[in-house]
Amino acid sequence: MKLIVGLGNPGKEYEKTRHNAGFMAANHLAERHNMSGAKTKFHAGVLEGRIEGQKVLLMQPMTFMNRSGLSVGEAVTFYKCEPEDVMVIVDDIALPCGRIRLRGEGGAGGHNGLSDIKRVLGTNKYPRLRIGVDAPGRVPQVDYVLGRFSDEQQHLVEKALERSSKAIEHWLREGDLPKTMSLFNQMADEAEAK
């Protein structure tokens, strides 16, 4: 079982905010694979299905961002997954809007959702896919990430969601995170250079 965890905050007021880029990516992947019939399990909205021949559990923790580890920990324990079987999708203010970046491990970069997952798993060695949302500039960070994308950003994010789905599909199909990172991180670098 592979766990694909899109991070965000539950509730209408947080829909389509920058901090919910992970939720948006999980929804995009579910739509591409006609996954429906969400259930509540592990303090999360979950969808079970198969993508690229792999059994997957798509998760959106309903615990609010700062407690995302609770959901991930419960699912990892239930399915007896290894950390490398967990792909976490998250927003990133350090990346330009619309850019994606895959990593097999790393620090939280100030992201409370990733910090809580590390606390629960006891390691930083789990895959993550970061979706750039731009730096906040002069806007206080909390206000910025809880704000909605501008029209220009929305266009870039839609492209990033498509690339995110393709990257996760490649990872599931090939079973080779370094290969997926090499391909999709390079594609992002080339797109930014244009």
What do these coordinates show?
- With 194 residues, the protein is an alpha/beta fold.
- It has one domain: Rossmann fold (3-Layer(aba) Sandwich), CATH 3.40.50.
- Helices cover 41% and strands 21% of the residues.
- It has a seven-stranded mixed sheet with strand order 2-3-4-1-5-7-6, with helices on both faces.
- A hairpin with a 2-residue loop joins strand 2 and strand 3.
- Helix 1 packs across helix 5.
- The radius of gyration is 15 Å and the shape is globular.
- The chain starts with a strand and ends with a helix.
- 41% of the residues are buried.
- The model has no long low-confidence stretch (mean pLDDT 94).
**Helix-strand makeup class:** alpha/beta
By DSSP (H or I, 4+ residues per run), the number of helices equals 6
Number of domains: 1
CATH superfamily: Peptidyl-tRNA hydrolase
Give the quaternary arrangement of the chains. single chain
Largest sheet: 7 strands, mixed
Looking at CATH, which topology would you report?
Answer: Rossmann fold
Helix content: 40-55%
Explain the layout of strands and helices.
Elements: E1 2-6, H1 21-32, E2 39-41, E3 44-51, E4 54-61, H2 68-79, E5 86-92, E6 100-103, H3 112-121, E7 128-132, H4 141-145, H5 151-174, H6 177-193
Tell me briefly what this model is.
The chain has helices at residues 21-32, 68-79, 112-121, 141-145, 151-174, 177-193, and strands at residues 2-6, 39-41, 44-51, 54-61, 86-92, 100-103, 128-132.
Descriptive keywords:
alpha/beta, Rossmann fold, 7-stranded mixed β-sheet, 6 helices
